[in-house]
Amino acid sequence: MRSVLARAAGLAGAFAAGAAAAHLAHIPRLTRLTTDLQRSRERILATREEERRRLRHDLHDGLGPTLASLAMSLDTARLTLAGKPERIEPLLSELRDRLATTVGEIREMAHGLRPPALDDLGLLAAVEALAEGCCERVDVRFEGDQADLPAAVEVAAYRIVEESVENIRKHARAGTALLLLSRDADLHIMIADSGVGLPDAVRGAGPPHTGGMARMREWAAEVGGGCSVTSRPGVGTIVSARLPLAVPGYHRAFTGEGGQT
Q1: Is the same domain home to 138 and 214?
Q2: Sign of CA dihedral 81, 86, 87, 88
Q3: Which tens digit of pLDDT belongs to each residue from 155-195?
Q4: If 156 and its partner were Cys, which of 89, 108, 174, 219 is the partner (CB 3.0–4.6 Å)?
């Protein structure tokens, strides 16, 4: 009986030691993953704050003074109309030109916040417009329900497709490309081309965390997802992304009916 207990105790000790060793073996990998995740979050936060600073600068130092100047020009035109109406035409013409320029600046700022094509066309049609003419044959498909996608997911999907299609135009020399979006609990994106493959600098073999590949990963990470790129010389490139639809911080109450802002 004692020998059986001793054997069982030995086996238990060996099992515990093995489990501890396995756990210790995973610690460096988990540490690296945690560090990479923290760095990714820091880059995303830094990028977001930089974008907010740029937008504040554009509004405060650009658009604000421009609107104030336009208001002063309107006052001048009003006084001119009252006293010397024959001189009003050139003032109004100049004012109209400046208004047109200001409208263009506002549209540029709005495009930086959210691509207008998403609101004008919807995600599928916007993706089709991006992909048009990127190679000889392009097939764009959407499997599943296209309605009520979170706004953040739409923007991330659009940016990832935009970057991928630009890479196809610039580097792939592909005859065919497939853009497949599918929806279940997440939104899945696959962009595949039959081209020559990406050069090292574009694929990510250059400085880490730079370039289009890093941007795509960060756009996916912002909504809690992931993005990967595989490319083989002479075979082609595949970009795959998974974007969770349960975006942290997203609530229908903030987006209105249909998930649109």
Answers
A1: yes
A2: positive
A3: 999 999 999 999 999 888 889 999 999 999 999 999 999 99
A4: 219
Strand spans (E) along the chain:
137-143, 176-183, 186-193, 226-232, 236-244
Token look-up 């945690």 returns 34
Which amino acid is residue 169, in one-letter code? R
Residue 233 sits in the same domain as residue 135: yes
Query: How many of the other CB atoms lie within 10 Å of CB of 82?
Result: 9
Same domain (yes/no): 56, 16: yes
Residue 140 pairs in a beta bridge with 179
Query: Are residues 230 and 152 part of one domain?
Result: yes
Phi and psi at 133, nearest 5°, equal 80, 10
30 and 102 housed in the same domain:
yes
For the full predicted model, state whether its pTM sits above 0.70: no
The answer to whether the CB of 187 falls within 8 A of the CB of 228 is no
Determine the Cα–Cα distance for residues 127 and 142; give it in Å rounded to an integer: 10
On whether both 38 and 158 belong to a single domain, the answer is: no
- pLDDT computed for residue 19 by the predictor: 53
Tell me, what DSSP letter sits at residue 150? Answer: -
pLDDT digits over 2-32, tens only? 565 556 555 555 555 555 555 556 677 777 7
User: Cα dihedral sign for 91, 93, 99, 102?
Assistant: negative
Residue 258 lies in a domain: no
* 74 and 150, same domain (yes or no): no
- CA atoms of 8 and 6, how far apart (whole Å): 5
Asked if residue 17 belongs to a domain, the reply is yes
Domain for residue 261, yes or no?
no
Q: 145 CB contacts (<8 Å, ≥6 apart)?
A: 183
Per this entry, what is the length of the chain? 261
Give the whole-angstrom CA distance, residue 105 versus residue 144: 37
For the chain, what is the domain count?
2
